[in-house]
Amino acid sequence: MARQSRSIKGVGVHGKEAEPVTAGVLDKARQHDYAGTRDPVFLTGVSFPPDWPVYSETLIKLSVYGANDGHQQTTNFLGSSSFSVADLLQSKDQQLSLSLRTADDSATVGTVVVSRMKMGEIEDGEVDHITADMHQKCTLVYESSHGGINDKDNGPIMNAVFKNAVCKVYRFQTVDSKWMLVREQMAECTLSFSIPKQLIALYIQEDTCRIQELKDLGELSPHWDNLRKDVISRYDQIIKEYQDTLAELEKLTGPSFKPSCSKGQKYLEFIPINLHTQRMRVTCPRKTDSFYDVVTVGAPAAHSQGFKNGGLQKLLSKYESEKKSYSTAYQCIYYPPEQTAKAREILRVVSQLQPHISALADQLLQTAQQSSSQPLRDILKSLEEKTEQFVHALKDELVKSALLALHAARPGYVSKSQSSAPSSPAGPRPGAAEEPHGVCNNVDGSKTPQKESKVSPVRSDSIPHHKEYDEEEWANPPLTLAVWRDQLGVLVQSLKECVAEVAERARRSVSFVLLQEAACSTAQGLQLQQRRDAVFSQALAALACGFVMRLYAGLEDKGFLRQLHAVGLVAQFESLLSTYSEEIGMLEDMEVGIGDLHRVTFRITEAASEEAVSLQPTVSGRRDRYTVEVPLPHHAFQALPDELREGKPLRVLPVLFNVGINEQQTIAERFGDISLQERINQKNFEILEGYYKSLTNTVPSECLPCFQTQTDLKELLDTLGQNVVTKKRKNVEILWLAGMICRRMNGIRFTSCKSAKDRTSMSVTLEQCSLLRDEHQLNKDYFVRALDCMRREGCRIENVQKNIKCRKYAFNMLQLMAFPKYYRPPEGTYGKVDS
């Protein structure tokens, strides 16, 4: 008998960790313990790594343990059996039927069937795998591993972002008595921390710029100057808090996820809860492998701030209604959210276009010295377009009213009614330089408030084109061309000065709008901004994780890439929160956080190298608009369509569907209010339907993935539309349909509950088994067995262990009585524990 000093560390009966055992001795078996049965289902597996010497004479011992009580807290030895590797390899069909004997070898307590499976059937590596099946009650195969180096799902690109993978492998029987191999892989994501840390740094940068913009407003009347000081003081406080939070996050090392037990930690409020990716890969006879991905994450919500007064949706609504009374008290103009959003957009456009116009103007002068007029025409065309965009942005009524308001806030301002009185001093009113009239016309030639000179527009038709000058004439230009060049220089310089002057006025006036908003909001408004920042950070980290995972999976799919740059992707968030008590606040936070993701676009870039640090996505922008750049290695980037390589902004359309399934939802449906859930589902169905219309009008049907289920996508949408308006308790069909539609549309799937640990696990495993049944002909007699096996032995119970150091879903029997049938875990896998 060959003995090795190395050990196989297994998981004992009912998920308890077993002692290490020597190689060649199987770890404690895993058992489906259906309370009260004397004929339990028993299954386990063990693999031998390539660096372990296993010979034909190596003996393997199987030891079986049972549960002493219904709660499976203790185990007792039942029996064991031994065999050699040679016995197995030389047996018929490489399968042995062994008698299970008691410790004293006095009695037989059962039969164990052992079979050999080549993992090379689904893996690149050739690893032997031995499985035991008691009484031939279940032909499932189970294996635990951590992703080998030959694993197709763990290449260099994946390993840069996804860490600490846990893998589970199953073998299920199909309706035609064939075998399918199913591989689950769950991984953490580095973006759980890197995206929030980048966002916090951007928040700090933006608020620091906001303070400078307020200071740049210049001299204000005492009333407005005092309000400005108060607002700056509040921004300083937020910046200090964000800096402290960022400093704490920079100290963290270890796992790449925030466990559910830490969801109330203040310094971790920007980090998504329990963010993991999960991939199911299915290998069937005579069929290519199929992949199914889902991102699991706790509902984006401000747990550290609590839900006593509701969540963001309710708080923002209340805040907006109160702002009007604040505006009267603080002598401010009330600006609704859409106006302040427009003000921020104008600031962004002005800040972006002014340097662009200036750069094009300089480029124009340089090109005018060259020996060809065509490049000159091209630059002039670009300059003309950017200038028109600039003028269009500043013609908004908001800019004009803001200029008047700022003018009135200057020291010594005298209104027109006051200035017409006999006692008014003669001469121009103080602050006349800020008069708003003609602010946009400055760019295209109208008289400015301070200047009498006019700026003629620089247009592409102003280039001399009656003849083409040759190279010598451009080098030694005739008088006409030389004069034109001089005139062009004057025009360009005037344009740059005028654009700079107008941009500065626009910035000051729009900054004054934002000052009024902040002044009217008191401290409550900035607290809400902090809450919104934290919730958005969690949501964006999850979205970036899902986008990266979906992009990596589709790099060789031309149809998917075409869809990506043509209409973008749908990101479908499934929520299982109830509409009762604190979870109402969580759902209100989540709704706003998911909605704010509309402000995010993605771009694909070429990585500087193939090092992990160069493959990390980066975030840029301000609160009104963010861009996530996803770098790819050179070979992957060069294989992309031109639109993607040119950096086209890629849109992701987030939609949220919620159906509560727990006992609190029962209370809400019978005695409470579920209007929030109904409104969310109806609103997001309309968004999803709009995306479907864009998709079908733009992208050929062959670009979408093929499914065995023949139901038409339009039919699925119609059925979903009927369900969201149907009054039906715990209508989980809404979630099933939305998830199915998302997969049919090449979308990104997310599943959430409070902590992404318990209800989420039930949903993910149910979806996986449904896919095996509908798409891969899983034998219907094995559906519930497969479901129980995944929940008992699969990645989700490992997720529970990672979060709370206990292999129990946080349910009790009373709670589960309120759950829909297929959302209930098997006996022995649950117990009320702190989550």
UniProtKB/TrEMBL annotation:
One of its GO terms (molecular function) is phosphatidylinositol-3,4-bisphosphate 4-phosphatase activity. One of its GO terms (cellular component) is cytoplasm. Residues 414-471 are annotated as: Disordered. Residues 419-431 have a biased composition (Low complexity). Keywords: Hydrolase, Lipid metabolism. This is Type II inositol 3,4-bisphosphate 4-phosphatase-like isoform X1.
